[in-house]
């Protein structure tokens, strides 16, 4: 039986679909939404603001707030409460670091901007190949 489900989310429609799928299929399971804020890089991007911020922890919470708020709105439609967590670093690595604490992972096929997908690689593919728990990829 699947009691604990990890749903990695960014601000994409596909990650919202993944959350809805998890709520539909794993009714009664504890759902944890994980938003990974990428590390600053030479290629710029939203995470660059973390490196430039006076209070990086506050900046990280601000970057994740919209995603976690949206996840809670979706969960409210199902009359369910979800846990929201934030990590910083390479998304696939952070998701895999947490995987063993869950019975399953449900995630979108891809997310973020085209530049993120080209530069970071296919997070869903990496998680799918390396996860120690079952992974459902939603599109």
Automatic annotation (TrEMBL):
Coiled coil: none
Gene3D superfamilies in the cross-refs: HUPs
InterPro entries: Rossmann-like_a/b/a_fold, Universal_stress_UspA, UspA
Domain UspA, chain residue ranges per copy: 1-139
Short name of any one Pfam family annotated for the protein: Usp
Family: Belongs to the universal stress protein A family.
Protein known as: Universal stress protein
């Amino acid at each position: 039986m699947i009691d604990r489900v990890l749903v990695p989310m960014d601000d994409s429609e596909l990650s919202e679909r993944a959350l809805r799928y998890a709520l539909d299929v794993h009714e009664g399971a504890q759902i944890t939404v994980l938003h990974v804020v990428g590390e600053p890089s030479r290629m710029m991007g939203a995470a660059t603001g973390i490196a430039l911020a006076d209070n990086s922890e506050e900046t990280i919470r601000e970057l994740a707030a919209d995603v976690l708020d949206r996840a809670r709105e979706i969960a409210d439609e199902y009359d369910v409460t979800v846990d929201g967590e934030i990590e910083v670093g390479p998304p696939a690595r952070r998701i895999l670091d947490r995987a063993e604490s869950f019975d399953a992972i449900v995630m979108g096929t891809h997310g973020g901007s085209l530049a993120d997908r080209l530069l970071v690689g296919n997070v869903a593919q990496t998680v799918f190949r390396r996860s120690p728990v079952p992974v459902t990829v939603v599109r």
